[in-house]
Amino acid sequence: MELAAYADYAVRLVNTEAPGRGTDDLRTTADIARLLDAVGRPPSRVTESDVPRLRAVRARLRAVFSDAVAGRHDDAVATLNGLLAEYPVHPRVTGHDGKPWHIHLADDQSGAAESFAAVAGMGLAVRMTSLGVDRLGVCDAAPCRNVFVDGSANRSRRYCSDRCSTRANVAQFRARRKARAAD
Predict the structure, then answer these.
(1) N or C: which end of the chain has fewer CB within 10 A?
(2) Separation between Cα atoms, residue 139 and residue 146, nearest integer Å
């Protein structure tokens, strides 16, 4: 797996919570198993203690994105460095599913929360250092607060998905039309 692809772990973890909607999809071990399955990791050895640990990591990762968007790049980097120190990676060379030898960042012997936090932090660090801190984003479509990594050529991404982009554009169109009708 390309190391930068592990940044998706961070994005997926942060997006398990939608603060603007008051929803949280990380409450049980089954929720963690679904998260692990979504990134292609076998959901083994998930315990009840993994839930609060991953929720705490999620809050810190959200702070990385929020600080980056607010221009507090030093704070974003400091928070990410704290996660990297607390959850170090344990790289290993592996080959599976007919793929050539490649690097995996987490030791299978680690607990689910530790392993996930380690690869999420390292993946986000790789993306941040290769693209720039300003490429970390929080969706502009209200009430969505999902995060994303902007990999666009012109650094123009403002929404987490096409769905949010469309919803925001339609709302802006309707607001303009309503304003013209009022004139």
Answers:
(1) C
(2) 5
Cα angle, residue 148 at apex, residues 152 and 151 outer, rounded to 5°: 20
Contact 42, 36 (CB under 8 A): yes
Lowest mean pLDDT among 12-16, 73-77, 110-114: 110-114
CATH number at residue 83: 1.10.3300.10
Tens of pLDDT, residue by residue over 88-128, are 988 888 888 888 898 887 765 578 899 899 999 999 999 99
User: Number of structural domains, the chain?
Assistant: 1
Comparing CA positions, the residue from 112, 116, 137 lying closest to residue 62 is: 137
Cβ atoms < 10 Å from Cβ of 66 = 18
Contact 143, 20 (CB under 8 A): yes
Interatomic CA distance for residues 5 and 13, integer angstroms: 14
